[in-house]
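User: Hello! I'm new to structural biology and keep hearing that structure can be predicted from sequence alone. Could you demonstrate with NAD(P)-binding protein? Please show me the input and the output so I can see what each looks like.

Assistant: Of course. The first part below is the input, the amino acid sequence of NAD(P)-binding protein. The second part is the output, the predicted structure written as tokens.
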Amino acid sequence: MTHIVVIGAGQAGASLVAKLRTLGFEGRISLYGAEAAPPYQRPPLSKKYLLGEMEEARLYLRPEAWYADNGIELHTGSRVEAIAPAAKEIVVDGETIAYDMLALTTGSAPRHLPAALGGTLGNVFTVRDLSDADAMAPHFTKGKRVLIIGGGYIGLEAAAVAAKKGLEVTLVEMAPRILQRVASPETSDFFRKLHGGHGVKILEGTGLERLTGSDVVTGAVLSDGTEMEIDFAIVGTGILPVTGLAEEAGLEIENGIRTDAEGRTSDPFIWAAGDCASVPHGAGRLRLESVPNAIDMAEVVAENMLGAGKTYVPTPWFWSDQYDVKLQITGLNTGYDKIVTRHGDKGAVSHWYYAGETLLAVDAMNDPRAYMVGKRLIDAGKSADADKVADPATDLKTLMRG
């Protein structure tokens, strides 16, 4: 009987094992996760869960009993120690387990603040897993002072929760503007104004010199010499693919675990999917950090493990919730040279990224219609006339014609 082992019990791992059963695979499936909880959603951790509006059980992707009911051996709290590709074995909790095929869905991990900058002080948090959210939640009380390091989506989402809870929030971003790596100046401006309206102090072009305190953080010194007193800090400076096991096993690494177009690694019996995997894209490679990519790639890999031979074609999309604003992003804005802004009803706005006449991506703030039309166009390899997009009198539906 074929034994498929999946390492990493996050969104990609859970999606992969579910797809295997949906496709009729009747062999043995083992899913290993280092965390104690069964596979769960991560996006709500920095939103509803941290706000206290969602219980832990509601985070779970499926009831824990579902795995046993579907013949999936779920091993939580189990950290895989090594992979031996030549023997087709893994070592976990001191035990050697044989596999016929292996999938790596190890995800990503947050960048931590170095100890020299105060990263090992107490009450310095990251936002990545359930234990992170549980550890920081008690500090989200009115009047407390929090410093958020990093002006990407995770940092801004944490800032929004803290502001809604009545904390004094300061966010520092070393780059000249928030969201610089991922969004246009126009989108940065929108969110800077949004957070400013909720009392968040955003300091751009300002880095962290160091956190201060003895055992627990009590203050911070910024790169401009400013000294401030704080009660806790949140580090949101990005994530890195978890590739340690793959590297030690001798698999090829290139901005993540390198796979072919089907999701197969440099070992023919080992596959990878989700945040940890980089796939061929155009003349280069692409690694996406998003829930949709984790699901879509994992499902294609499941099909290919059973012989489908399908090419995985990423269709990037992403979302972020901050206050009463839902940001929806479709496409990749790399290489844009023009931004077209469209204003909708009730404060809705969208920014359309173009390279010449080619539509690359759309950022839509409280404008689901703009997002959906943009996504359909991009997925279909079509563009839309920029002047028509900018004209609020244009019915977005007409952009799909032709």
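User: So the tokens describe the shape?

Assistant: Right, they're a compact way of writing down the 3D structure. Reading them back into a model, for example: The first strand starts at residue 3 and ends at 7.
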